[in-house]
Amino acid sequence: MNDPYVVLGVSKNATDEEIKRAYKELARKYHPDNYADNPLSDLAADKMKEINEAYDAIINSRRGSSSGSKGGGYNANAKSSFPEVRSLINSGRLEQAQEVLDGVPPASRNAEWYFLNGTVLYRRGWFDEALTSFVRAAQMEPENPEYQSAMNRARRQSGRVNSNPYGYYGGGNDCSACDVCQGLICADCCCECMGGDLIRCC
Prior knowledge:
Number of helices: 10
Structural class: mainly alpha
Distance between the termini: 67 Å
CATH class of the largest domain: Mainly Alpha
Largest sheet: none
Order of helices and strands: HHHHHHHHHH
Strand content: under 5%
Helix content: 55-70%
Oligomer: single chain
Radius of gyration: 23 Å
């Protein structure tokens, strides 16, 4: 990997704020959305990946493992791709954490990205949206207990427990037997109104 400071175009004496500002400017410039249906899209994606790696490398080197020592419910022993995001979440700076996450191009979003995105949404009280992200993280890394635990917690909070842990957003197949029965009763009422007697339900 190239010198991360060179990649971001900042000096090694730059403040954290200057580094963050440089990262945001480059992220806006090379974001994949700007290159949709463009022959340069692959190059932009590679550049965006390099920018993300450089930013993470600088933040990692500056903060070391201090951000991981206060896990606040996270697996402190896990090697994080987004140490700054975890630190922001742990300190309650959810908007800033979401801002950093949003700057990551879709092609570079790994299981941890979805887990952290779900964590931000969960802490904001958006449980259904959080569950979607947690499910994605658990699908990408099914053996990760941190992601499984978060998914199960969000499922309990949303009150929509499904026997298939990955079937919550399964294309509309989350109706229960009671839903089906109610639908049949409704259809029967409609038929009777029109002179029919088509359905017998429990």
